[in-house]
């Protein structure tokens, strides 16, 4: 065995001798080895081995080799069969064999494959042994990024062949260049190659010839590692023979991609493949080889591999760009295609982590490279995830920079808070040092806490609330502020100014904790407690000075805020709070206070009253109240059209008037109000920093969609809900802990899914509704007390049942209906709308059971619907959703009786009785429809429904059947 120094000497002489004609070679070796006969003996032995192996062609790239036989003609193997495969055409040659495109031709199946055979005339024992070794290696590898072995055998000539997966693709460097892949895209593609190499290493196989030409990327973007022709099996028990001839392997390997230890003939480990992968990555990132120049010879490259340190990729890119500036434009280069940007930008992409990662893989000493390909790939993965990498020195500053990159929004928010807190602490410390008396120092500290609490609520919170992902920071700020407020409240007795501050702060915190109107944390119960504290303080302050207009105004605000929160929490007392707020603003107006603040508060109070009236079923009263609110809001906006707060009030009231008109059936008249409100919101939402206006624009589109849907304009309704979802989706992604936005998002997907189902797009509807249900479930996980999520989730599950029923998934549909009904009928839920929707769910369940012929169960379901909805429909005023439910249930019962009649003999008493019962049910249905103002094409909740016209036809059918029966009886002399 040669030592490394001796092998280097032998290799250099061989490289020169192999380039000479055989006639000149002998004289050259005589001169070179005149003083070293053993050296000449070694050289003669290696040359003889080379002559026997016959692998001269392996130094030429496969794409440049024309496959010919010994007579100079195209290969005669085309058209021949090898085993069950028929050869179609030559693909290329290289290594030890020829590669053909072929297909299976034994009538079992047809599949295109690649067949590799020992090249004609190259059937030496070495080549055949190496060929079998490659086949053995491929048989042991099963990885999505390694060309798979399908079959193998022996030709009629006794030579081995194997059948591989056919890869129609490009070398990885060409693929990246032609598509102009970005640096991250190239890295992700390269990581798949690393996965394949690591897989081979885990099976004790070293590839030893990794280069772009052996990595083909298919049209779908999947890279495939090829050509294990000179791979080395580390497991001695897996090697079938001694086939690793040193000289031959030296001749086969590609110097530009070989590791220093390969070039020197030293022992090979998996670190050699790490090095070759490093060269490939260098080329992918820079568009050039780390050692090869325009006129480099293989010998010069081999010497550079062992002795020259490659320059940093970022430096190579900048140098190459400078060179290209002085070169005529000849089309984009590989490096130009990486990113169409400036030198500084490209250099910045590679500078730092990527420089260090590539150079660590290219270290001359195998012990200083990555310990494995997996470690190499992990560093790339960490770089893409802005995490610290192994290739770079692990300093505190470096890890901190990576943390900041990953968490920019949170770090900025925390930094803002920290700076302000530090400033506040510095002021407090300075004041403490100056203080001379204990009482004065305590008083100053008290005022500092008071100021800090207000700052946390009204300054710091507002500065971060619109930042993406700021909900966690906001929650922490509000918790700390609430602690300060509670400590201040214990000492607020007798200090009116402090009491006013506390009331304003508690009100603000309560809204931020649990409001369903503005972005909040979704903590309704906690928010309610904070607002109750505010109301109690405001009442005490107003009682002490009953003629103070400012205190009265603030008390009205507190009452309407408490009413809104009570309504959101499903607790009683909301109407009383709204009435008290209106009574206070009416008193202020009577005292001559007609300021815009008082009028604006009165408009908001009417809004709340309208919402409460609508929920109680008093739709006419709700419309009257919201029209009063709109009249005030429009007057205020006309007087000051640049005030965004007044613009928002006008927009909101227009939308709410449109919704209230839809509730009483005036949907066509409602459309101009919707349009006016949407136009105002769209104008405000152009400001991307105005998150509230964008969110309210989305909600306005939801309301508008509902009116269009009931009018039968399903396409318009779908467009409106999709516009809303397009607004809410990015907002909720940026702030996933914002409960209000998550509810909005779930409601949006529910509305889109319902539209799909109504339009007959059942598969899309199923997918979208399942997504909505999942989001509702996540909301309930974080806030089990939420009242809105169960209601809309129940509606979504019933709509999902419709989609499943229409696509033949009847059992799944029944289960979905039952889930929705159970959710809407949960114990303690007495909301009329919830119960009415549960009744409609029973009707939809009954229809599904009817389609299965389970008439008795269907009738039971219809009776359950009537038991729920009839009392609600008979209330004063009647619940509109309940009227739809009873109208549908009565009609369905009539259909059951009609089906019984159809199965009975026309001469039987049962036939007449069934038609009579059907007529009675249909009449009840008609009466219910008559009580619904301008019935919609669907129910207000989006469920399919019939129509008065359908019911009228059913009554006519019943009358005709009964008349025919009476006529028949009279003709037969039977008394009628």
Structure overview:
With about 1000 residues, the protein is mainly α. Among the domains are: about 5-55; about 60-165, Phosphorylase Kinase, domain 1 (2-Layer Sandwich), CATH 3.30.200.20; about 170-225 and about 255-405, Transferase(Phosphotransferase) domain 1 (Transferase(Phosphotransferase), domain 1), CATH 1.10.510.10; about 410-565. It is about 65% helix and about 5% strand. The chain contains 38 helices and 11 strands. Strands 1-2-3-4-6-5 form a 6-stranded antiparallel β-sheet, covered by helices on one side. Strands 7-9-10 form a 3-stranded antiparallel β-sheet. It has a two-stranded antiparallel sheet with strand order 8-11. The protein is flat, with a radius of gyration of 41 Å. Mean pLDDT is about 80; it is low at about 55-75, about 235-250, about 330-340, about 440-445 and about 460-470.
Features:
976 residues; Phosphorylase Kinase, domain 1; flat; three-stranded antiparallel sheet; mainly alpha; Transferase(Phosphotransferase), domain 1
CATH C-level category of the domain at 169-225 and 254-405: Mainly Alpha
Question: Which range does the strand content fall in?
Answer: 5-15%
User: Which superfamily, in CATH terms, is the homologous superfamily of the domain at 169-225 and 254-405?
Assistant: Transferase(Phosphotransferase) domain 1
The oligomeric status of these chains comes to: single chain
Number of strand segments = 11
Could you list the spans in which at least 5 consecutive residues all have pLDDT below 50? Answer: 53-73, 236-251, 328-341, 440-446, 459-471
- Ends distance: 121 Å
């Amino acid at each position: 065995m040669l030592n490394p120094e001796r092998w280097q000497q032998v290799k250099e002489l061989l490289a020169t001798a192999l380039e000479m004609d055989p006639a000149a070679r002998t004289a050259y070796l005589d001169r070179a080895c005149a003083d070293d006969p053993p050296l000449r003996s070694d050289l003669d032995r290696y040359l003889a081995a080379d002559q026997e192996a016959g692998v001269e062609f392996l130094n030429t790239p496969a794409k440049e080799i024309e496959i010919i036989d010994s007579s100079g003609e195209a290969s005669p193997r085309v058209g021949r069969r090898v085993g069950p495969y028929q050869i179609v055409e030559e693909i290329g040659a290289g290594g030890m064999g020829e590669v053909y495109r072929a297909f299976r031709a034994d009538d079992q199946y047809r599949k295109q494959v690649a067949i590799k055979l020992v090249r004609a005339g190259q059937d030496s024992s070495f080549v055949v042994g190496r060929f079998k070794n490659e086949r053995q290696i491929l048989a042991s590898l099963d990885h999505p990024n390694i060309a798979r072995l399908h079959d193998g055998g022996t030709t009629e000539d006794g030579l081995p062949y194997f059948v591989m997966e056919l890869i129609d693709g490009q070398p990885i460097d060409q693929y990246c260049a032609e598509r102009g892949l970005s640096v991250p895209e190239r890295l992700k593609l390269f990581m798949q190659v690393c996965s394949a190499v690591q897989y081979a290493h885990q099976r004790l196989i070293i590839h030893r010839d990794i280069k772009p030409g052996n990595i083909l990327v298919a049209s779908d973007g999947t890279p495939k590692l090829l050509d294990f022709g000179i791979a080395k099996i580390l497991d001695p028990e897996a090697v079938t023979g001694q086939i690793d001839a040193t000289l031959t392997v030296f001749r086969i390997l590609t110097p530009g991609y070989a590791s220093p230890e390969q070039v020197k003939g030293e022992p090979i480990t998996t670190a050699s493949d790490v090095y070759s992968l490093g060269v490939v990555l260098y080329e992918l990132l820079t568009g050039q080889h780390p050692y090869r120049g325009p006129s480099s010879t293989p010998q010069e490259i081999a010497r550079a591999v062992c002795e020259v340190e490659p320059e940093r990729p970022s430096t190579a890119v900048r140098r190459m760009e400078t060179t290209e500036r002085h070169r005529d434009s000849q089309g984009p280069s590989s490096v130009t295609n990486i990113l169409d940007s400036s030198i500084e930008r490209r250099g910045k992409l590679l500078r730092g982590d990527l420089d260090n990662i590539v150079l660590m893989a290219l270290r001359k000493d195998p012990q200083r490279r990555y310990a494995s390909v997996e470690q190499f790939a992990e560093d790339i993965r960490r770089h893409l995830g802005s995490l610290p990498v192994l290739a770079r020195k692990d300093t505190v500053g470096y890890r901190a920079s990576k943390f900041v990159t990953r968490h920019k929004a949170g770090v900025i928010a925390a930094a803002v808070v920290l700076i302000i807190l530090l400033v506040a602490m510095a002021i407090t410390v300075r004041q403490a040092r100056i203080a001379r008396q204990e009482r004065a120092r305590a008083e100053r500290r008290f005022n500092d806490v008071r100021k800090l609490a207000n700052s946390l609520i009204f300054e710091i919170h507002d500065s971060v609330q619109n930042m993406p992902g700021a909900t966690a920071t906001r929650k922490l700020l509000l918790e700390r502020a609430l602690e300060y407020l509670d400590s201040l409240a214990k000492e607020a007795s007798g200090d009116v100014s402090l009491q006013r501050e506390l009331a304003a702060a508690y009100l603000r915190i309560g809204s931020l904790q649990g409001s369903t109107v503005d972005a909040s944390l979704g903590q309704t119960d906690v928010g309610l407690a904070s607002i109750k504290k505010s109301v109690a303080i405001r009442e005490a302050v107003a009682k002490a000075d009953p003629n103070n207009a400012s205190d009265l105004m603030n008390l009205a605000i507190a009452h309407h805020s408490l009413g809104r929160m009570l309504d959101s929490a499903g607790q009683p007392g909301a109407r009383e709070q709204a009435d008290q707020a209106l009574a206070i603003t009416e008193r202020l107006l009577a005292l001559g206070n007609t300021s815009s603040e008082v009028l604006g508060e009165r408009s908001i109070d009417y809004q709340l009253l309208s919402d409460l009236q609508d929920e109680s079923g008093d739709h006419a009263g709700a419309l009257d109240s919201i029209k009063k609110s709109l009249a005030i809001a429009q007057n205020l906006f006309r007087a000051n059209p640049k005030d965004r707060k007044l613009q928002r009030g006008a927009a909101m009231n227009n939308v709410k008037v449109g919704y209230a008109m839809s509730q009483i059936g005036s949907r066509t008249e409602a459309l101009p109000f919707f349009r006016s409100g949407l136009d105002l919101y769209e104008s405000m939402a152009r400001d991307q920093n105005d998150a509230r206006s964008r969110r309210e624009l989305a909600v306005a589109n939801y309301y508008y969609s509902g009116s269009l849907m009931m009018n039968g304009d399903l396409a318009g309704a779908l467009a409106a809900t999709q516009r809303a979802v397009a607004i809410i989706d990015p907002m909720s992604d940026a702030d996933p802990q914002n409960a209000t936005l998550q509810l909005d998002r779930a409601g949006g997907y529910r509305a889109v899914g319902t539209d799909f189902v109504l339009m007959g797009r059942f598969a899309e509807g199923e997918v979208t509704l399942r997504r909505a249900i999942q989001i509702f479930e996540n909301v309930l996980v974080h806030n089990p007390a939420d009242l809105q999520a169960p209601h809309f989730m129940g509606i979504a599950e019933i709509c999902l049942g419709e989609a499943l029923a229409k696509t033949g998934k009847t059992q799944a549909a029944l289960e979905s209906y039952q889930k929705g009904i159970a959710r809407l009928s949960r114990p303690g839920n007495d909301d009329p709308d919830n119960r009415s929707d549960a009744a409609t769910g029973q009707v939809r369940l009954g229809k599904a059971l009817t389609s299965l012929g389970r008439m008795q169960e269907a009738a039971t379901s219809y009776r359950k619907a009537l038991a729920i909805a009839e009392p609600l429909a008979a209330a004063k005023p009647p619940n509109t959703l309940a009227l739809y439910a009873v109208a549908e249930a009565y009609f369905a019962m009539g259909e059951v009786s009609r089906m019984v009649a159809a199965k009975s003999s026309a001469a039987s008493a049962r036939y007449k009785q069934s038609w009579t019962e059907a007529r009675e049910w249909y009449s009840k249905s008609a009466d219910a429809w008559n009580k619904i103002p301008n019935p919609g094409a669907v129910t207000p909740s989006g469920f399919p429904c019939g129509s008065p016209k359908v019911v009228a036809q059913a009554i006519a059918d019943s009358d005709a059947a009964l008349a025919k029966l009476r006529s028949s009886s009279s003709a037969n002399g039977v008394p009628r």
